[in-house]
Specification:
Layout lengths: L1 H9 L8 H12 L4 H12 L6 H9 L5 H112 L2 H34 L8 H54 L7 H14 L13 E3 L7 H12 L1 E5 L3 H10 L7 E5 L20 E3 L6 H11 L3 E2 L3 H6 L3 E2 L5 E2 L5 E2 L19 H46 L9 H20 L2 H52 L3 H5 L3 H10 L7 H43 L14 H9 L1 H11 L5
Parallel strand pairs: 2-3, 5-6
Antiparallel strand pairs: 1-4, 6-7, 7-8
Length: 695
Amino acid sequence: MRALKKRLEAGDVRVHKTFPPYSKDFRRRMGIESEQALELFHQTVSMKSVGSLDEFVRSHMLEPFDAAAMTDNIVSHFDALTTTYNSVQRARAQIEALTPLLEDCDAYEGLAARIEEADGQQAALRYFIAQRTSALHEAQRAEAERMLARLEGEKKTAKDELERLRDQERRWELQREGLGGGRLGELERQIEETEQQRAAQEKRARQHATLLEQAELAPVTDQAQFTDRLEEVARAQHDVAGTTQETRTALETLAVEAAQLKQRAEDLNADLISLRSRRSNIPRKQLEVRARLSRELGIEDSALPFAGELIQVRDEEQAWAGAAERLLRGFAVSLLVPGDQYARVSDWINDHHLGTKLVYFRVPEKLPPRRLPTGASMALFTKLEVREDSPFAPWLAGELERRASHACVPTMEDFRHAELAITAQGLIKGTRGRHEKNDTTRIDDRSTYVLGWTNQAKIDALLDQAGRVHGAQREMDEKRRTLGAAYEDAISRDKVLDRLTAMVDYSEIDWPSAVRRITELTAEKQRLQAASNDLDELTRRLTETADEIAEQGAAYEKASQSWGRVDGERDAAERARDEARAVLDEPAAGAAQAHFPALEQRLNTARLACRTAQECAQTETRLREEMTAHKHRWAKEQTRLAQTIAAQMSSFRTTYQVETSELDASVASAPGYRALTSSSLPTTCRASRTSSAPT
C-alpha cells in the first residue's frame, strides 16, 4: 500500500488520507459547488426507487431550514439596524443644533480674549506714555541746560559792561563837581523829584475833577473852593444815605408783593388747569382728598359727589347766585356718602391725615315721605335746582328745603319782618336772632363759587382775575426796575462821595504849584550851565552814559528773566522726567512692555502724535477712551451672545435631556457642549455616512 501510494505521488497523483479533503478536491475538479449536491448524487446512485418526488426533493435536495429562528434573526437585525439609523439621525440633529451654538461660543470666547487684551493694553498704556514722556522731558532738560549756559554768558557780558559804564559815570561826576557841578546835580535831582510830584498831583486832580462831575458838583481851582466842596460832599452823603434806605425799603416791599402776586398767579394757573380737566366748581384741595379716597377704596368719584356738584341756581334767578353761595357754601363742599359705603369711607377718613377740612353726610337708602312746604314761594330753595339724574336728588331736595328756607327779600323792611331772610347782598337772618354777612370776597366774584355742575362761568372769572394779576405783575416789574435803577444810582453816588471825602488836603491836587517850582529850578540850572562849556560837555557825556547804563541794565534784566524762566523749565522737565522714570520702575512696567507694539500700532492707526508732553497726555486720553469704547461695545456683544447661547442651550437641553443631564444653560458650560462633538458624536456620524435607512 505504501509502495502504491509512493508510485501514485511520484506520478503527480494527489493522495488523500481522509474523505473530507478528497470530497472537497473531487467537487472542485467536477465543478460541484455544494457538498449537498454531491450527497444527493451519492443517494441517487444508491437508491432503488422514488416513492414521492416532493418528499425526495425535500429530504435530499433541500438543506434543513429553521424558519422561526431565521425570522427572529431577521427581525432582530432589522431592529438593530433601525436603532442604529435612529442614533445616526439623532447624532446628525445634535451636530446641526450644536454647530451654530459652538460658533457663538467661539465668538464669545474671541470677544473675551479681545477684551482681556484691551484690558492689558489699557494697563500698559500708562507705562507706554511714561516711556515716551521720559524721553521727551530728558530732551527738554538737555535743551534747557544748553540755553542756560548761553544766557549765563549774556548775563556776564551785560554785567561787566554795566560795571564799566558805572565806573566811567562816577569819574565824570567827580570831574563835574570839580567844575561846580555839585549844585547842578542837586538841581537835577530836585527837578526830577518835583516832576514826579507834579505828575502824581495832576493825576489826582483829574480824578478829583471826574468825581466832582459824577457827583454833580462844581470843579475847584483854589483852597477856598476845595473847602466848600468838602462841606457839600458831607451834605450830599447824608441825602444819599436817606435815598438809599428809602429805595431799599421800597424794593423789599415790592419783593414781598411780587412774591404774593406770583403765588396768586400760580394758584390761578393751577385752578384753571384743574377746572379744565373737570366740570366741578369744588375747590381743588377737596377734590384731591376725594380722588385719594376713591382711588384707594376703588370707588368711582361720581359715587361720592359733593353737594355743590348737584345743586345750581336757576338761570332766571342768577341775581340771587351770590346770596345762595354765601348761605350754602359749607353744605356745598360737603361729601355725600351712600349708606352702603359709609363704613369703608368713615374708616378711611379716620385713618388718614387729610391736610384740610372735610364734612361728609351719610345719605340713607330709604327716605321718609317729604311734605311739600306751604307759603314758600319767596324761599331761596325755590330759586335752586337739583340734578335730577342723581340718586341723591330726593335727599338733596329735602336738605335744601330745610337749609335754604330763608325768604329772599328785596328791601330791608321785609328783612326785618321776616323770620328767616336773606338779601341779594348776602346779609343772612337766621334762627334765634343770628345775623351774618361774610364779605371776605366780593359777592359777585364767581371765581369763588362752588355751586353748579358746569364751571365755565368760574373759568371765565378766573381768566379775568389772571389777566388782572399779570397786568399787576407787569406794572410791578416796571416799578421794580425804576426803583432798582434809582438804588444803583444812589449806591454809585455814595461810592463817588466816599472817594471825594478821602481827599482832605488841597495840596494833594495842587499841581500848578509844582509846575511853578520846576520852572524856578530849571531856570537856575540853565544859568549854571551857561557859565561853563566844560560843564556842558560833562553833562552831555553823563547823559549818554546814563542812557547806555539803562540799555545795558535792560539787557541784563532781560537775560536774568530769561535765565529764571529757562531754569524753571529745566527743573520742571527734570521733575517730570523723574516722575515718568518712577512709573517705569514699577514692578508691572516690565510685563507691560509686551503690549507696547500693539499700542504703537494703535497710535499709528489713529494718526495720533506724541511729540510733546501735552500731546502725549492727549494721546493717552484718546487711546484710553477708544479702548474703553471698544470694550463697552464688545461687552454688549458678549451679553447678546450670552443670551443667544443660553437660549440655544436651553432648547438643546429640552430636546436632549439625557446627554445634557450634567450641563446647564450658561456660557460656562460651553466646554461640556463642545465635548459632545469631540467624543461620541463624530464616531456615530462617521458610521452614519456608511449606513442607509432601513427598508
